[in-house]
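User: My advisor, Dr. K., asked me to get a structural model of this assembly before our group meeting. I'm new to this, so sorry if the format is off. These are the inputs:
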Amino acid sequence: MTATTARLPRRRGASIRRGQAVSGWLFTAPVLILLGLFLLIPVLMAAWVSVSDWTGRGSPLSPDVHFIGAANYGQVLWAGGLSERDFGTALKNNFWYVILVVPIQTIVALALALAVNRRMLRGRGFFRTAYYFPSVTSSVAITVLWLFLFSTTGAVNAVIAWFGVKGPNWFNEPAGIFHFGAVNGPVALESNTLLGVSWWDWLGGPSVAMTAFIILAVFTTGGTFMLLFLAALQNISADVEEAAMVDGANAAQRFFRVTLPQLRPTLFTVITLGLIGCWQVFDQIYTGTRGNPSKTTLTPAYLSYTAAFNNQQWGQGAAIAFILFVIIIIFTLIQRWVLSEKAVSKRRMGWITRAERSSTAQSPKATGHVAIVGASRNGSGSPEEDDS
Amino acid sequence: MTTTAVPAVGLGTPDDAAPKKVPTRREHWTPSALTAQILIYVLLLAVAVLYIFPFLIDVATSFKTEPDAAANPLSLVPQTWTTAAYQRLFFNSDFPIWFKNTAIVTVFVTLGRVFFDSLAGYALARLQFRGRNAVFAGLIAVMAVPNVVLLIPKFLVINQLSIYDTYAGMIVPLLADAAGVFIMKNFFESIPASIEEQARIDGAGSFRIFWSVVLPMARPALITIIILSFQGSWNELAHFIVSTQSPDLTTLTKGVAQLASGQLSQGTQYPLKLAAGAIMTIPVAIMFFIFQRRILNASQGAVKE
Amino acid sequence: MRFTKAGAVVLAAGLAVSLTACGSGFSSGGSTQDNKKPLSILIGSSGDAETASVKAEVAAWSKTSGIKATVTVASDLNQQLAQGFSAGKPADVFYLSTDQLAGYASNGSLYEYGDKLTNKSDFYPSLVKSFTYDNKLVCAPKDFSTLQLIINTELWKQAGLTDSDIPTTWDQLTDVAKKLTTGSQTGLVIGGEYARIGAFMTQAGGNLMNADSTKATADSDANVKALDYVKQNLAAGDFKFAADVGAGWGGEAFGKQLGAMTIEGNWITGSQTADYPSVKYKVVPLPKGPAGAGTLQFTNCWGIAADSANKAGALSLVQQLTTKSDQLAFAKAFGVMPSIQSAASEWKKEFPALVPFLDAAAYAKGVPTAKGSADVVTDFNSQVAKLSTGDPKTILSSTQTNLDALLK
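Assistant: The format is fine. Below is the predicted structure of the whole assembly, which you can bring to the meeting.
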């Protein structure tokens, strides 16, 4: 994105350039100061708090506060106490949330986009609006609605009852969905633990309560990501597909060999944003369950908050936040590696080059822009993806 | 000077630049294709109902009595209409204060972001200065920091600055966002430089050029920023939890979240909670419907209807 | 992401400026005292009745003392207290729960004024114990509540039960619960948490910690016995947890007649009158367990912040709010029980139906107050919610480990 740097002609005078230097800094100063104050300094301060014994009274920078090394991280990661188990539980809950939400919402969004993108569709505007609307509403309002829909006597259970099945008490049901009602697991799984949580529990999947939140996430973000895919689909020239069609590729082949590869940058953006967003579930938990039932909706983000603000364990709270930061980075790197550009087959390349001349898609910018739209809730994103 | 010739590429309306897709051939429906088509519509409609119905339930339930809400969760027609929930919200709770606070914060944050983001975006796109690349790299880095990491430290800094529990503490930290700068930078890069050069030769200063030449052309991008800021600050929760404690500064999100988790009320009280949720959705919904063409077309201008 | 030198310098400069410019944000502890300074009072209110009556009593005090005072209702008391303390501007006077006491007392956030109270000896000794930290009474007990058995008298009659059937032993409780369980109605519906089930522990002679909260006693045989008893009845379907019948708490299940009996405190009277006025009920003492009578008691105190600029005024206010007349006014408004013994007889006269609650003061046990115990109790609760399928011994031993860790 820095290719435009040297656009101005050279004959420009030195004075103008100096003027530009001054105004350049002046123009960016407000943003720099604000971001420095409320992003950079907070991160540095939290880093200090995470290795200090500050108890929440007075300034964390006062001389009474001492450096205690990795003790806070130890409490959370290897001390073997309640803090470790809580963190392990939160991690387990959120892990399943991510593992389920990210793929499902990506597939749902892609499916919606493909359906809405059909050439002959009538009422496209209506469908797009309907699918996108949940994305603009606040997570608080939606969570309140969800609490009602998934209550014992709520709408969801009323629908389930049509089939003669008694629905669960969603937000009060701590049972893991992959335990399928089994209460106790094999001893080997029960007795070995990771971060204070038994393997049996790790493998149990999200609780029924968390599943309701998973459905909520797919419901609200599907629309946002649908827009990203739609944008990308618009920028795929129909010509490539037609070239493939001429070659006798069937619909499935065309989708997997032509459409999908061209969507890869968008796919990358969608999954990255999904990962970042899903690892920070907070609003829904704060509004809805506060970690209940049986801590099965506890998430690291919410745990970090309660540790600091309710239990005066500021150091631990900050430590959890940093560990979460690292986890998000690791997950993003892993998926970057998995989705990394692989060699394009010769045949497919042929279709693309044949079509290339007629299509001057603006896809880098378009997707970059919408990526930010999608990321705005998280205040983050990675719009600088290579759109090769 | 011709401002009309500016193609609004890059900011969501690539339709002017991209070749238009013209349906080339009229399709003839074979029976199987027709069935497939009908199936698609049925499916799309079913999903649409799934997406819209919850909101209808929300509004309908807010006019129900509590036993009615529990007994007929799916019904869209209350057995007995009651506005008790709304009366309680508006005349017997802090709800109006929450609404006022959210409105104040949203207005200031939106104005601030529009100005600061476009200012910085312009500088990064057009002005030559040492360190520009560093600033840009810094912005990108900043965007990667997850919000939740900032929850605790933001409180610490707001507190250090002595703006804890004030409007300033609620508004100022939200005033700039890296993503907005990024959008504006992208947009300004898509405008031909020749117009500004003309102004520069005429002796206009950088701010003057920005303010009276470039900014007026940036309407589509500014609308995008307005939408994002409005939606972002209207729906923000975590920041308000950590930046305030006084009930006079409670926002809609914070207030309703606490209402939902039962801290202000006993029992389930779904009509009340859903009414609160419905009202807080209205402004964003209005915003959405006013700008929906822009929001939706922003991402896919090539489709003409 | 590359950071060039220039960028780093700018950011570092910003950091330095902001930190030096704002070092004044914290001036803890040594605030100058001014005994005319207005007071702020932060309460966690159970409803409009409590808010109104606290406001009225505080206003009355303001009038006589000439010190302005404003009452604020917290939406999330613990969080607001924590933020207030960290921000260096806490409320002057506030409700403080037993499980929060140790944390704030240990970091010096609280003004330890207990010894200055003129009516110190009038408070119930067990309440004083709950608010003692390092052998000093930190704050004045505000009021207290205990748990007893609440019976739906109509359902009781329908099941063919009479007054002589009121259970006095665990076995009898099982019997009547069985008789009261029909269709969608369960004999006893209680909250699935320590704050209810703990009553059975005390009846078996146990509790999570000893009275001073200096020793963890979670894995005692008495506690195992208590959880086993509850578990058996859950398995038989005669007891159920409120969440399992779709209610937020025992009182809601009781009011909606999902349960014919519940175990709740004296606060239940307010919500029953307001939400379920048609349900007739009666308060009776909980049955005796293997070790005799037992129940839990809950209490809050009037905390005063060490950072308050008017500690003298705050103390005088608290002194007033704990007098007999004020406490009886609160009792009438929202059903709490006075924390002073001298108000007992008048309270009983005022609320004859609730006498079992106050009588429990003689034998009720407090909840753990050690620093961090709230977390352990939360964890215990999360395991107890699954008691019907869980193993009492495992639950209690993990709780023992967690409590032991607090005392290290």
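One thing worth pointing out at the meeting: The longest strand of chain C covers residues 140-152.

User: Perfect, thanks a lot.
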